């Protein structure tokens, strides 16, 4: 699966692509990440990518020409790709979106906006989906782009190595993950729950489900409501 990131700050992604799971996935050709500098597509002699908004107001707006040409170039690299734009106006990104992207395996063009956003005509003509990282404001779309690459990549076959490792994670079934423990068995007077050292896998599974349910009900009642609704079907 290929991710094509359109940004005016390509260096933002250097350490991200050279670290941990993403680096290993790239080295094993399980994913491909292409970074396109929007400035390289600007026809302005100073490679300008922003201008004042029509109608006045604070801030600057990203101009359409460099973005449109960058998207057109990305479409040459991957004709069937889907264009995603990161904006507070978009639907809040969720695990279900990551799972859909990973299942479809459609290449993604990730457009990182800045300033007051991009010219609306880009959204009207070129963008397939608008996504928000959450109900807060960031300086640009680079962090949400990394979020999508990471969350989708880890669901692709072979990326994590253990194909079952993502099946019981938080949000996979509208439940938060159960508490995890490792050695030592006693740390600062706190012991690992006895059931986890019993060797009784049936009881361990039962305990983990109960813990997931109680964690979700206490911390994310919205998710718990969805979980119970699915259970009652």
In short:
With 233 residues, the chain is of the alpha/beta class.
Task: Please describe what this structure looks like.
By secondary structure, this protein is an alpha/beta fold. It has 2 domains: 152 residues, SPOUT methyltransferase, trefoil knot domain (Alpha/beta knot, 3-Layer(aba) Sandwich), CATH 3.40.1280; 66 residues, tRNA(m1g37)methyltransferase, domain 2 (Trp Operon Repressor, Chain A, Orthogonal Bundle), CATH 1.10.1270.20. Helix content is 36%, strand content 17%. A 5-stranded parallel beta sheet has the order 2-1-6-5-7, with helices on both faces. β8 and β9 form a beta hairpin. α4 crosses α6 and α7 packs across α8. The radius of gyration is 22 Å and the shape is elongated. The protein starts with a strand and ends with a helix. The mean pLDDT is 94.
Number of domains: 2
How many angstroms separate the termini? 35 Å
CATH superfamily of the largest domain: SPOUT methyltransferase, trefoil knot domain
Assembly status: single chain
Structural class given helices, strands, pairing? alpha/beta
Strand-residue proportion: 15-25%
Q: What is the name of the CATH architecture of the largest domain?
A: 3-Layer(aba) Sandwich
| Helical segment count | 8
Biggest β-sheet description: 5 strands, parallel
Q: How many distinct beta strands?
A: 9
Pfam families: tRNA_m1G_MT
Domain tRNA methyltransferase TRMD/TRM10-type: 1-225
Catalytic activity: guanosine(37) in tRNA + S-adenosyl-L-methionine = N(1)-methylguanosine(37) in tRNA + S-adenosyl-L-homocysteine + H(+)
InterPro entries: Alpha/beta_knot_MTases, tRNA_m1G_MeTrfase_C_sf, tRNA_m1G_MeTrfase_TrmD, tRNA_m1G_MTases_N, tRNA_MeTrfase_TRMD/TRM10
């Amino acid at each position: 699966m290929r991710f094509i990131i359109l940004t005016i700050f390509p260096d933002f992604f250097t350490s991200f692509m050279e670290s941990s799971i993403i680096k290993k996935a790239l080295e094993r050709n399980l994913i491909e990440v292409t970074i396109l500098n929007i400035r390289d597509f600007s026809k302005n002699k100073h490679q300008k990518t922003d201008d004042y908004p029509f109608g006045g107001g604070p801030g600057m707006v990203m101009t359409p020409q460099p973005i449109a040409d960058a998207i057109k170039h990305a479409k040459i690299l991957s004709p069937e790709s889907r264009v995603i734009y990161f904006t507070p106006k978009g639907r809040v990104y969720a695990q279900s979106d990551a799972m859909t992207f990973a299942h479809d395996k459609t290449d993604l063009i990730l457009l990182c906006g800045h300033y007051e956003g991009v010219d609306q005509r880009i959204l009207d003509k070129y963008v397939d989906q608008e996504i928000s990282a959450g109900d807060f404001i960031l300086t640009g779309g680079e962090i949400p782009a990394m979020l999508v690459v990471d969350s989708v990549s880890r669901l692709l076959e072979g990326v994590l190595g253990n194909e079952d490792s993502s099946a019981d994670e938080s949000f996979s079934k509208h439940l938060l993950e159960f508490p995890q423990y490792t050695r030592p068995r006693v740390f600062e007077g706190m012991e690992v729950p006895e059931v986890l050292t019993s060797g009784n896998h049936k009881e361990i599974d039962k305990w983990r489900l109960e813990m997931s349910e109680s964690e979700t009900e206490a911390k994310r009642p919205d998710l718990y409501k969805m979980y119970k609704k699915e259970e009652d079907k």
